[in-house]
Amino acid sequence: MAAPKHIQPILERMPQEPGVYQHFDAQGKLLYIGKAKNLKKRASSYFTKNQANGKTRLLVRKIHDIQWIVTASESDALLLENSMIKEHKPIYNIQLKDDKTYPFLVLKKERFPRVFPTRQVRKDGSEYFGPYSHVKGMHAVLDLCKKLYPVRTCSLALTEENINSGKFRVCLEYHVGNCLGPCVGKQTEEAYNESIAAIRHVLRGNLGQVKAALKAAMSAAAEDLRFEEAERLKLKLEAVAKFQAKSTVVHPTISDVEVYGLVSDAKSSFVNFMRIHNGAVVQGQTLEFKRRLDETDAQVLEAAIPQIRDRFNVASRTVLAQVDVSLELLGAECLVPQRGDKKKLLDMSLRNAQFAMRDRHAQLEQVDPDAAKERLMETMMHDLRLKEHPVHMECFDNSNIQGTSPASACVVFRNGKPAKRDYRKFNIRTVEGPDDFASMKEAVYRRYKRLKEEGESLPQMVVIDGGKGQLSHAMEAIDELGLRGEIAFVGIAKRLEELYFPGDSVPIYLDKRSPTLRVVQHMRDEAHRFSLAHHRKRRSKAFLHSALDDIAGVGAKTREALMGHFGDIEGVRAATETQLLGVVSLRVAKAIRAHFHEAKK
Q1: Which of 184, 202, 247, 304 has a CA that sits 20 to 30 A from residue 377's CA?
Q2: pTM, whole model, 2 decimals?
Q3: How many CB atoms sit inside 10 A of residue 396's CB?
Q4: Spatial CA neighbour of 40 closest among 64, 18, 14
């Protein structure tokens, strides 16, 4: 069974990422919501397998469009699927029309707080963490918390009066070490709250502070020769290291919120909209907005958000975005989250906007390849401050190990894609030792000296793999050739993906989701791969070089014959002229004897 013609291009563009997919009919009605570890494979399976289920066969015949939302993990996809099905109730999701809810861990608001699982989220001031897609995983988290920081499990009213009056007695949990006895004053409220603060970090997935505290306590115990306590702390530290934090797609304290993530190319901005209702992502959509001028992200969002709100009929009091947007006229407040669950929701929205932009580019390439190239070239020209489209780009990289066999490579890209037939490699001739700067200068000089002499076209952009040092030496070569101003150069530093332009002391940083940065990184990685492959080949030849290769008249066949007869170089070296005559001619035998005789001097 093959996918219909109108579905096949959609399947080809789908990302191989975890997420939720949505099937729509020809009228735009939502038919089905499903989750997937790999969106592309799962959606394709509807059309590549013979469906035994009659309901599924009917669904497949009705599918006219597929949309998707990318998540960070398969577990997140499961939670998102559950919340979206409850919100939209698609007719083909009847098996999930129950009231099933996923469990949370609650940190109860009370004196000496308890930690326990629940499926009911109440607005009682308590803190809820989750939801957890697997009950076993939730209990593993709870067990870890109690193992690290023993807290009470009883529901006693531990008021100061009750404790001071001696109303309670310790229970079995105290005797087995699972509780430190706050009910009888054996643990102070301050010490108990310190454990609760640490548990809060674990439940939020902030394990760095927990691990640091455990390491410090373990070191202190070891220094004081309290080795049994140090061993217990070590086991706790190992337990934390194995722990995986809970899902963050949904958080019960985030309610009635809109999230907007924006990415742009030279011609359009892609705005992803997500609606959070009762702590769950219930809606997600990415829309494309044409750019008229060089608008900022804030200006694009200020124009896009009212349109999206009208289209989806939403009016939340709180909006999350990556930049501050003035929404006073809409009666909403814009927040720019920097950390925590709201930041993770914004990151998810940005990720979906990025995938939507890639999908749009892939769709353009399917329908109109020339338009897709034009769009990419326009974006790169804008991002890299060029005067013309970078149709022809080149990238240089050096390779050497401890200064041996230094080599350099130049890779060529045309219209943003590798042109492997035009790749060039260089054996560095004038540089002694591991000098990357001088090697870069030689390779750049030789490359463009030759292009200039042969009258070949020069690239619009050259990328140098390295920081300001490599870039400045490359520009020295360009100055010597008199080509300054005819080719644009930029250096990319690996550590922070900084882009340096000649003469600029401060680098620029492209958006990590930018198609321009993606092409530059691809060039850098391809140059590194090609340069390393060339360098390895050179080293292999150097290691295989034989003393016989330096003797006139000894070729590959003669060398093999000599090695086969005498076993190794030492055997050839010790052989007399008469013995050599059994394998080679008199002239070659004399040359071999003369070579080794000179070598002894």
Answers
A1: 304
A2: 0.52
A3: 27
A4: 14
